[in-house]
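lol so apparently i was supposed to do this last week
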Amino acid sequence: MFSRITGTGSYLPEKILTNHDLEKMVDTTDQWILERTGIQKRHIAENQTTSELAEVAALNALEMAGKSANDVDLIIFATTTPDLIFPSSACLLQKRLGINNGAAAFDIQAVCTGFVYALATADKFIRSGSHQCALVIGAETLSNIVDWSDRGTCVLFGDGAGAVVLEASEEAGILSTHIHADGTFEDLLKVNAGVSSNYERLKAGEAFIQMRGNEVFRMAVKTLGRIVDETLAANNLQKTDIDWLVPHQANIRIINATAKKLKMSLDNVVITVDQHGNTSGASIPLALDTAVRDGRIQRGDTLLLEGFGGGFTWGSALVKF
Ligand code: ACO
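anyway here it is w/ acetyl coenzyme *A bound
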């Protein structure tokens, strides 16, 4: 028994913040942002919660899969920016979608690797036979935890949502998943407040992403290279067997480095970071949906999904689409 992606969906909020807009907010330039990150613009949720963004992405994915909401028996929602401390965003989404069949619903927090963690978890549930139809979500409203006066971080992040429907299938789908973490790197990338730590800052609306960008960059390139090797070796595959790389969309230079490691032409790499910046847990399903809907990714293609993020966390999924 396999789990197989039968539908993809995504959503970006309407408001767009361009590099030129940012030039008016902090000491930066369009040229600096483009050269260092590849980002041209990002989308910002205004009066929309993370589960609202996810709802649109989920409906699009369900429509492509030809499923109704109550066919879903498992919702796994990757987010670092949940609507509330509780209920989980998965439960809030369940309510929004009108799912009243008692489907299991929970959140996963692995920052930018969240979607890969969620996909890996859903795959294991389905392979075990306990569940048949999962909605796997990555959605974020990171703009709420960005310090808009810090040019080192505010140019990087954006809001958005992506979703897949994962169904039990005898046909090969998810071939393998690989997830890892190392909590000793806490200080390189974190939000500086939470419920049981620096709560005053959270209450004051001063809980912000803090990042030592250069060090994160180097770790990301090194670690993503290793996960590519691990994934290929586990499946006894060569680099040339991969049709599409669907990477976490953090920085074009990190993506280029991973493509180089795979000796892969950028023509076979899905790149959307220019259009929406780093949307953390949402970025991989956003990129996947983009390339499925524009016809680049076809049924039967072999995809390598990979991500790296706060924690540090990192992971990959090898997928027969
Ligand atoms: N505009 C203009 N100058 C800037 C800006 C900006 N927006 N931001 C920083 N600078 C300056 C710095 O102050 C520094 O100036 P100095 O030399 O006078 O001190 C100079 O530019 C170079 O700064 P670096 O930090 O060394 O620049 P770098 O080339 O490393 O690029 C960046 C910074 C884009 C953040 C890069 O390090 C990066 O992408 N890091 C990885 C981020 C990432 O991938 N995160 C993934 C996970 S995210 C998550 O999990 C939530």
